[in-house]
UniProtKB/TrEMBL annotation:
<dbReference type="InterPro" id="IPR032694">
    <property type="entry name" value="CopC/D"/>
</dbReference>
<feature type="transmembrane region" description="Helical">
    <location>
        <begin position="39"/>
        <end position="59"/>
    </location>
</feature>
<feature type="domain" description="Copper resistance protein D">
    <location>
        <begin position="205"/>
        <end position="304"/>
    </location>
</feature>
<feature type="transmembrane region" description="Helical">
    <location>
        <begin position="110"/>
        <end position="133"/>
    </location>
</feature>
<feature type="transmembrane region" description="Helical">
    <location>
        <begin position="243"/>
        <end position="266"/>
    </location>
</feature>
<keyword id="KW-1133">Transmembrane helix</keyword>
<keyword id="KW-0812">Transmembrane</keyword>
<protein>
    <submittedName>
        <fullName>CopD family protein</fullName>
    </submittedName>
</protein>
<feature type="transmembrane region" description="Helical">
    <location>
        <begin position="71"/>
        <end position="90"/>
    </location>
</feature>
<dbReference type="Pfam" id="PF05425">
    <property type="entry name" value="CopD"/>
</dbReference>
<dbReference type="InterPro" id="IPR008457">
    <property type="entry name" value="Cu-R_CopD_dom"/>
</dbReference>
<feature type="transmembrane region" description="Helical">
    <location>
        <begin position="287"/>
        <end position="307"/>
    </location>
</feature>
<feature type="transmembrane region" description="Helical">
    <location>
        <begin position="174"/>
        <end position="197"/>
    </location>
</feature>
<keyword id="KW-0472">Membrane</keyword>
<feature type="transmembrane region" description="Helical">
    <location>
        <begin position="209"/>
        <end position="231"/>
    </location>
</feature>
<feature type="transmembrane region" description="Helical">
    <location>
        <begin position="145"/>
        <end position="162"/>
    </location>
</feature>
<feature type="transmembrane region" description="Helical">
    <location>
        <begin position="12"/>
        <end position="33"/>
    </location>
</feature>
Length: 308
């Protein structure tokens, strides 16, 4: 299970760099605005959710790739635990006592009577179903499909965004849901490629297909992000005079970097990989780099989510 990276670094360790890269994004957001500590937990939950979504969708790019059920089960279980932590932080914020002073009674009230808690329960149920099904598929191979995981993961990823502040605007829920799903799929699929794809042949077959579907996903993220940000801030000036706006600007700058990187690698990396002129190790290194930049964007996005 070695990646062939310099020093024999395991690919799972390499993609583990997504977490510190995302935390760097949170740190930048903290420097620009007043960001709660819950942003770090939200970031980790979002990264886990994107990973599960990408692994479940990967067979649609290349049906020759085996579904990594054990990896799916572990990541889905981690996702469920992290979403529970997100709910706890949210409950402490709503109740006003903070996480350390949150009582079981107040937490129960939040889950049952507050809409945010009810959404949190639905998210926990979705992640639990994904983790349970993936565990069953791993323990009892044969006859299982990743489509069920894909559906539940996609719905779960969009539940919180479609019920957030944008839901009060016309088509706001649709825009927020599309933004969250496209971003998670964009990151998740590339991360899944790096974790699952091994040889030059598989990279040659799968990477161009990912590149083709990444284009509309990037467009969806960019367009919905601009609309959501403009509606949320209500003008151009707040982008440069408020902490929320400055974080939006930082996120946009990194997104532009990703667009430029994607354009360049579509002409070089994707073309060379498709022609079998690039080694699997070289493709993996590029995937690790791009995932790290994406994770930093996710860190900024998570900060905006908890701040908004």
């Amino acid at each position: 299970m070695r990646s062939g990276l310099p020093g024999g670094l395991d690919r799972r360790v390499a993609f583990g760099l997504a977490v510190p890269a995302g935390l760097l994004g949170v740190l930048v957001a903290w420097a620009l605005g007043d960001i709660p500590a819950a942003a770090t937990v939200r970031l980790c939950a979002d990264l886990a959710g994107a990973s599960v979504l990408g692994l479940a969708a990967l067979p649609r790019l290349n049906d020759r790739l085996d579904i990594p059920w054990r990896m799916l089960a572990v990541l889905a279980g981690l996702w469920c635990c992290l979403e529970f932590a997100v709910v706890v932080f949210a409950a402490g914020d709503v109740v006003g006592s903070g996480v350390t002073a949150l009582s079981p009674a107040d937490f129960g009230t939040y889950l049952v009577r507050i809409s945010g808690g009810q959404i949190g329960l639905a998210i926990l149920a979705g992640t639990a179903v994904v983790a349970g099904y993936s565990t069953l598929a791993f323990r009892r191979p044969g006859g299982h499909t990743a489509d069920l995981v894909l559906v539940f993961a996609a719905v779960t990823v969009t539940l919180r965004p479609i019920t957030g502040h944008m839901s009060q605007q016309v088509f706001g829920s649709v825009l927020a849901g599309v933004h969250a799903l496209a971003a998670a799929m964009w990151l998740g699929l590339l991360l899944a490629l790096g974790l699952v794809v091994r040889g030059r042949r598989d990279w040659a077959e799968t990477l161009p297909r990912y590149s083709a579907v990444a284009v509309p996903m990037v467009a969806a993220v960019a367009v919905t992000g601009v609309i959501n940000g403009s509606v949320r801030l209500g003008g151009l000036t707040p982008f440069f005079t408020t902490g929320y706006g400055l974080i939006m600007v930082a996120k946009s700058v990194l997104l532009i970097v990703l667009l430029a990187l994607g354009w360049w690698w579509r002409r070089s990396w994707v073309a060379a990989a498709a022609a079998h002129r690039m080694s699997a190790e070289a493709s993996l290194r590029r995937a690790v780099l791009e995932v790290a930049v994406m994770a930093a964007v996710f860190g900024l996005a998570a900060s905006l989510a908890v701040a908004g």
